[in-house]
User: What shape does this take?
Amino acid sequence: MTGKNKALIVVGTILILLWCLTPVAWIISLSFKSQQAITNGSPGFFPADGDGAGWQNYVDVINDEQFRRAIFNSIGISLIATLLSVIIATLAAYAIARLEFKGKKLVLTLALVIAMFPVVSLVGPLFDMWRAIGIYDTWLGLIIPYMSFTLPLAIWTLSAFFREIPWEMEQAAQVDGATSWQAFRKVIVPLAAPGVFTAAILTFFFAWNDFVFGISLTSTERARPIPAALSFFVGADPFNRPASLLAAGAVVATIPIIVIVLLFQRKIVAGLTSGAVKG
Amino acid sequence: MAAIEMKNIVKKYGDGFPAVNDVSIDVADGEFLILVGPSGCGKSTLLRMIVGLEDITSGDMVIDGKRVNDLAPRDRNLAMVFQNYALYPHLSVYENIAFPLRLAGAKDDEVDKKVREASKTLELDEHLDRKPGNLSGGQRQRVAMGRAIVRDASAFLFDEPLSNLDAKLRGQMRTEISRLQKRLGITTVYVTHDQTEAMTLGDRVAVLKRGVLQQLATPRELYENPCNLFVAGFIGSPPMNFLPAKVDGDSVELPFGKVKLPADKAQRAQGKDLLIAGIRPEHFDDASVVDNPDESATFDATVDVVEWLGNEAYAYIPFEAPPEVQKQLTQLEKDLDGESMRTQLVVSLDGASRIQEGDNAKIWVNAAKIHLFDPATGENLTVDAEHAGTVPSDDAMAKAEEAGHAQDDVHVTPEA
Assistant: This one.
């Protein structure tokens, strides 16, 4: 690579990073300003003298009972939805990648159709159904739609990974004395681990970031997740929304995502299958 | 340890593709059997039926006196080495070798003892903690073998285990496998398309074509007494020469002249019109380096190309073949995965021969070694039946031809 190319790549990367991270930086900056300063108008990136609120906004947010409850809901719902979705998707994708069965195309097509369905159009019917069967405003009421909407992507991602794993791996395991289930658990799943974690991250993102279901299928803090809770975060004065508090809340809501990505990223070691077969 | 009996094994795929057709082979306890044939001959399919990775359409697979047709691979107690090794990349070499033992629920100290024993045999001691991804091809091959020998399997099955190694390593590993098998004395079935491996490793060799067993015999029997054109052309390198021939009394007319035949050979070929004579390159020589060449067994020919290799030299002599023979030879060449460019005679000369390119040379032929084939059926008319091992039937080639047509009707032959 020539020096010129390298320079261009560096410049491009910096531009993209600026584009992506400026709003984040702005939110962080806001979260450290006092409510007073924002009402008065405080255009600087760094809080002016006397405008800074220090960690006060964060302390307020964390001490807020509603907010804590919403964080708990979000983490619980997203993790359960992710876990279930990944388990089901792993089994389904394995079947799709390995077995010849009637209706295989149908399953794949249906999965795609579900993924293409606009979320908003389902909110009405789901609202009615959930109230009728009594899971409105519960964790389950959110876990089910999150699972259904993330399953297609997870299945497609994972079946691609499974297809990459040579058949011989499994046959070798069977000859070595493994049952089909043992071969799947001890050989196939470890090899597909990067795929499993990719699917898990995608599912978790979807569940964590969802707003539409979160606000329409809940009514109290029993099950309301963070994105919905933030929108109810009006503070004392309804005409004067506590922008700095909201900013602090948004930052706190972002932290679990970052933690999860960092944790999972270590597991996504591409090229894990290298060395399985001739090379 | 166990004997493996295959009785009338047939494999027909769901789409009607007949991969293996009525093959019966008995592998004795401790025997090293080779399944050999060009690609698409069903040898790998047959091996996978033994181990249980393919269903058997009809026939009986009997291992150690027990019919195993309906047993899952894990219940057959066989060890297999795959063509691409199929090592588990997420496990260390140690755990790869230990895998079958762990599945069997062996205790840790027993696992350790057996793994170390196997790794010592295969000289893998310093690699035990590494992952397969960091090993060379030959080391991976040895790990795959370690996984096979670590447990007390009834038999070893090898599916072209050396085809991914480079030539030098292949030679070494071939000797290694042979030594290992002799030491362990375990029944082994080995699939290969490489006839050098077939000849050097096997106690007996089964030659397959289009899923039909052609001949089952020791390497020497196959070489000296091929039962038909296909086996004759497949075994030997450079391959046997096929020449149009006409037998007249006790002499045979070849494109280069008449040669006197031994009486019994001439006798068997009486009454046939056009035949194909099969003569191995080493059964010719430069008449000038042969002591007292019999005048009735020499002919003059113009040498086109000479390849001198030191200990010997190959001389190429082109000839014209009549169309009916030409057709059979072209088909044969196709069956053997080759492409015939021209009909030519390959003659192996003594290294001392002074024949040059373009020379008109006097060539001597060992008439006692000539085989005569019927061009219609491909059958060897001069075969010594007592020393030809098992020949399933006289028309094995015709059956293979038939099976081939059935295969082509379904789809183009897959890479086997």
Q: What stands out?
A: Residues 271-279 of chain A have pLDDT under 50 and may be disordered. Chain A has two domains: 1-63, 65-265.
